[in-house]
Amino acid sequence: MTPPHVLAFRGQDRAERRPGTRASGWAHFTFTSLASLGVIVFAIARVERVRLLEALVVPSTFLFANLVEYLVHRGPMHRRKKLLPILYERHTLRHHRFFTHEAMACESAADFSIVLFPPVMLLVVLGGVALPVALLLFAVATPNAGWLFVATAMGYFLTYEWLHFAYHLPERSRLARSHLVRALRERHALHHDLGRMAHENFNITFPLCDWLFGTLARKHNDA
Ligand SMILES: [Zn+2]
Ligand SMILES: [Zn+2]
């Protein structure tokens, strides 16, 4: 049952934003998916004869991305900072009031924009992170290392978007019922408890850093 305070916030949020439609929700999801996949395929197509040291870029990038995900979520997304207060506003004041542990699912595709990053975020990740680091790797390492970084970073970004999207689908949907998604979704639902959101389960994808920094909560142990 959706609590009254969530219903009230959803009504107010929908009235204030440009009315989203089911079609615009699916267009948003399709754009995020296809643009990210396009960059990943473009980068992988440029990799040839990978050496072992170059291949290490993939797990290193994955671990680095997991740390960034954790720190940004634990930091500016949950604590208002002078720099980029929009992260706090979009996440704590909006995403967490629109979805709580008692009401995790979108009611229609028109709500997808409360889950997915705005499309401009793709340009930020691509132009602000993937490209500069890739250029650095081109210069100090090899082109393979640069392209593998781009492919892994964009792959991580898309995994974040797809998993977070799956957590906020109705529980009966096929994707949300898969074993892996169910387990990860349960952790994210704990994070959506307003009393816990600033303290636990900051990894949206795989809870490596939560485990490392002691902020991992599991329903049965900690409830
Ligand atoms: Zn969420
Ligand atoms: Zn959060």
TrEMBL record:
Segments forming domain Fatty acid hydroxylase: 61-215
Bilayer-spanning residue ranges: 26-45, 51-72, 120-141, 147-167
GO biological process, any: lipid biosynthetic process
Keywords from the named record: Membrane, Transmembrane, Transmembrane helix
Molecular function as annotated in GO: iron ion binding; oxidoreductase activity
Pfam family, one: FA_hydroxylase
InterPro entries reported in the protein's UniProt record: Fatty_acid_hydroxylase (IPR006694)
Recorded superkingdom: Bacteria
Protein name: Fatty acid hydroxylase family protein
UniProt organism field: Polyangium fumosum
